[in-house]
Design goal:
Blueprint lengths: L3 E7 L6 E7 L9 E6 L5 H15 L3 E5 L3 H8 L5 H10 L1 E4 L13 H8 L4 E7 L10 E7 L3 E12 L2 E11 L2 H17 L4 E6 L9 H11 L7 E6 H10 L6 E4 L1 H14 L7 E5 L4 E5 L16 H13 L3 H16 L14 H13 L1
Parallel strand pairs: 3-4, 3-5, 5-14, 7-12, 10-11, 10-12
Antiparallel strand pairs: 1-2, 6-7, 6-13, 8-9, 13-14
Helix pairs in contact: 1-9, 1-11, 5-6, 7-8, 9-10, 10-11
The structure holds nicotinamide-adenine-dinucleotide.
Length: about 375
């Protein structure tokens, strides 16, 4: 067992928490992999604390290098994306990130988007798989989202008309043929590696004929290389949104442009119990950052009731990524057993458990 010492420094404002971890050794048997750990904002520190406790019980292969970003970064170091956080990720090539608050309307630009751009994390992988009985049974969908282009480039400006300086708002989206081919190839390779059979490309090429048409064209071109191995079809985004409610079982993998992927990944999270059940990985050629799909949930922050499963599943994806599939499987099994055999669930899943009670129950499963 490794030695982990946790210090929590709480300010009166619960949003500002600094977690300092000194992890002498993550595993006695092998050299730990150093990974950057960003607790983040809102419920971030609570669900990250849960992850650390569970990883210690699991036998973590990681030594955590704790860094700040988002509002916590502004409060600790005056910057939503401090240089030392970037430096840590640049060195480690691997990070687990809690949710980061982004001001709505004005204020600083999303640190999440900046991180994806900085490390060219072009692929966002967001799986949704049924873990508890609910409105939908046996959902198993993997959404691959193009992570750098589309409307997220957010080149925006206002045009004044008459007395109104904000009369017209303009936003420019951008997709490149090469960028679209790169994400399509990532999706097809993911399908081959993970035994997936079919990719549905989601677009709006009837209206955004160029912006999403180029994405569809590139996917069609790439699909020729995978003929006979992985099937591909395509669907207009509005029809896809409806089909995900009416008959989600028809989908195996979805390949989406940036904004559509953002929206539909919340929708598929809703099919499996909500945002508390939705992990994500941001993957580039030499760096990967794993996170929960959800945000900082300010409405429940500091109450100790957040569901930590999304970030735990994201950390399981991180274990897969570094070749520790055995640990990832043990973690997923412990979560499923805690939910279904022990019937211990947080409030978002209609249970009564606190974050701490759920965490302790998973640890108990891991030591059984
Ligand atoms: P949100 O995902 O934070 O919350 C939406 C709803 O889901 C809330 O009612 C919340 O309580 C609930 N919820 C979310 N995660 C939960 C969990 N683990 N357990 C239980 N309930 C949970 O979305 P929002 O309120 O629109 O956004 C809040 C902030 O988070 C914004 O600043 C936004 O920009 C940011 N955000 C960050 C990320 C990220 O860091 N990747 C993603 C989305 C939103």
């Amino acid at each position: 067992m490794g030695l982990v010492i946790l210090f929590w420094c709480h300010s009166k404002d619960l949003k500002w928490r600094i977690l300092i971890i000194i992890q002498a050794s993550a595993m006695s048997s092998s050299k730990p992999l150093t990974a950057t750990l960003i607790p983040g904002d809102g419920i971030g520190p609570e669900i990250v604390e849960s992850t650390i406790q569970i990883f210690e019980t699991l036998g973590s292969p990681f030594a955590w290098d704790v860094q700040q970003a988002g509002v916590a970064g502004v409060e600790a170091l005056g910057d939503p994306l401090p240089a030392q956080t970037l430096e840590s990720i640049r060195k480690n090539h691997l990070a687990l990130k809690g949710p980061l608050t982004t001001p709505v309307g004005g204020g600083f630009r999303s640190s999440n988007v900046r991180l994806r751009e900085e490390f060219e994390l072009y692929a966002n992988v967001r799986p949704a798989k049924t873990m508890i009985p609910g409105r939908y049974e046996d959902i198993d969908i993997v959404l691959i989202r193009e992570n750098l282009g589309g409307f997220y480039v957010a080149h925006e400006y206002l045009i004044p008309v008459g007395d109104n300086p904000k009369a017209v708002a303009v936003s420019t989206g951008m997709n490149t043929y090469e960028g679209s081919k790169r994400i399509a190839r990532f999706a097809f390779e993911y399908a081959l590696k993970n035994g997936r059979k079919k990719i549905t490309v989601v677009h709006k090429a009837n209206i955004l004929k160029l912006l999403t048409g180029i994405f569809l064209d590139a996917a069609r071109d790439v699909s020729k290389e995978y003929e006979g191995r992985v099937e591909m079809d395509d669907m207009i985004v509005d029809a896809c949104a409806m089909q995900l409610v009416m008959n989600p079982w028809r989908f195996d993998m979805l390949l989406c442009t940036n904004l559509f992927g953002d929206i539909l990944s919340d929708q598929i999270a809703g099919l499996v119990g909500g945002l508390g059940m939705a992990p994500g990985g941001n993957i580039g050629t030499n760096t990967a950052i794993f996170e929960a799909v959800h945000g900082s949930a300010p409405d429940i922050a500091g109450k100790g009731i957040a569901n930590p499963i999304s970030i735990l599943l994201a950390s399981a994806m991180m274990l897969d990524h570094v070749g520790k599939q055995d640990l990832a499987t043990r973690l997923r099994t412990a979560i499923i057993d805690t939910l279904n055999i022990d019937q211990i669930r947080t409030g978002d899943l209609k249970g009564k458990a606190t974050t701490k009670e759920f965490t302790d129950a998973v640890c108990k499963r891991l030591t059984n």
